[in-house]
Amino acid sequence: MLERILALSPAGMAVLDRDLRFVWVNDALERLGGLSREQRLGKRLRDVLPLLDLRLDAEGIESLTREVLDTGRPLVDHLLRGGTDAHPHRPLAYSLSVFRLHSATNRVLGVSFIVLDVTDRWRARERLALLNEVGAQTGSTLDVMDTAQTLADISVPRLADFVAVDLLESVIRGDTPRPGARLHPPRMRRAGQQSIHEGVPESVAATGQAVDFHPHSPEMQCMLDGRSRLEAMPGASTRSWFATDPARAAKIQEFGLCSLILVPILALGDVLGVVRFIRWQLRDPFEQDDLLLAEEVVARAAVSIDNARRYTRQHSTALALQRSLLPRSLTGGSTLDVADRLGGGTPPAVTRRACGCAWHYASERPGSVGSRPVNSGRQGAGLGPPADPGRGVFPIRRGTGNRRGVRRNDHGWRNYPRTVQPGRELR
Predict the structure, then answer these.
(1) Reduced to 3 states, what is the DSSP secondary structure of residue 165?
(2) How many CB atoms lie within 10 A of CB 40?
(3) Quick one: pLDDT at residue 84?
(4) In what order do the strands lie in the sheet containing 414-419?
């Protein structure tokens, strides 16, 4: 009865002797890997694993099994990943558990292992990790171009072989998105791209260059209706696109395009651009689950791109306001007379007690617009930045260094005539 239950178990199970030779295999393990029971029994683990349809680390698995046999410590839920000969670029995941077998007299008989197919669970975990990374990495910068490039870097090769992020020029400048009319495609630029091939040879435009799309291309249709697309390449829906875009058609024929996903970048109902996910013929084509994942990835990145756009607009507005506050032209000189006094006492025109203080005064020399004294401060401390940019008032910082060789005047003051550029500190 027990052997019948183990034989019908959905988990792959086997028993190996102390030489790691197969002595028993159930039906589930026989179906896993494409080898029959007769081809496994009596053979070592190291000889069977290379014959399987699965591309696994044979030496690593045998080493782990040998360690369990020698130490008696079980191996539980060890993750194995590898493709098959039919689908080498479509990784599968298996959970391996190994434990040692003993007789009634506690004599070591061998080991038994259990193998479970956990591909769906592993893929779900990988997709969740990808989404979390997209949200964290794209939200770490407030530059539109850097955010778009981060999206492309994270998506390759985990989701696609080639990713291109194209944004409206108005978005890159920080302006309100303007998609344009149906017959007049908007001006767009390549904001980010990444590929499994070094140098991104399949791209028709470099990062930062302008990109053009035909009004009837899938990219423009995706931006106009705001809906994602999953296209098989080449297909009937893309033949007209190839005819109107010979440059991209040549790249597709050169690299053997397999499938394409187009996702619009939407933020608060506005279209910011479009993202293109491409797989070549070496990999399996995109599925509906891949489309859902790509939409979620772009949705999270769209929030960061829109935040970067708004920051760019506010930053440009602040710079324009600062420039408007500056004078149109500077008149007069920029030479100052600087005087200070060390130690206690009260400097001229000051009535407050100042024991142990250093008093500093600076005024513009004759010939400039007018004299402008600067407030005094403690020794070793400096004043803050000027509150009136471009008007000739400059902060003075006084250090504690030795200023020997400078003569004092009758009032105990030392004069330092210097030339100071506006906006610079005098030390």
Answers:
(1) strand
(2) 22
(3) 74
(4) 359-364, 335-341, 414-419
Residue 250 CA: distances (Å) to CA of 218, 246, 279? 17, 6, 16
Residue 379 has a CB neighbour count (10 Å cut-off) of 15
Mean pLDDT of all residues in 215-233: 88
What pLDDT does 237 receive? 57
Q: Please indicate whether residue 318 or residue 415 has the higher confidence score (pLDDT).
A: 318
Which tokens in the block code for residue 4?
């019948």
Q: What is the DSSP string of 60-121?
A: HHHHHHHHHHHH---EEEEEEEE-BSS-TTS-EEEEEEEEEEE-TT--EEEEEEEEEE-HHH
Mean pLDDT of the chain: 79
Residue type, 370: G
- 250-271 residues labelled b (16+ CB within 10 A) or e (exposed): ebbeebebbbbbbbbbbbeebb
Instruction: Supply angle C-alpha 104, 107, 109, rounded to 5.
Output: 100
Mean pLDDT computed over 372-380: 45
Structure confidence at residue 427 (pLDDT): 44
Rounded CA-CA distance 33/22 in Å is 15
Q: How far apart are CA 126 and CA 140, in angstroms?
A: 21
Whole-angstrom distance, CA of residue 348 vs CA of residue 36: 105
Q: How far is CA 47 from CA 39, 64, 72, 93, 335, in A?
A: 10, 16, 23, 21, 89
For tokens 């298996």, name the residue. Answer: 94
Residue 345 backbone phi and psi in degrees, to 5: 105, 175
Query: Model-level pTM?
Result: 0.70
pLDDT per residue as tens digits for the range 401-422: 444 444 444 444 444 444 444 4
From the list 101, 105, 117, the residue with the least C-alpha distance to 16 is 101
DSSP state of 408: P
**336 or 114, greater pLDDT:** 114
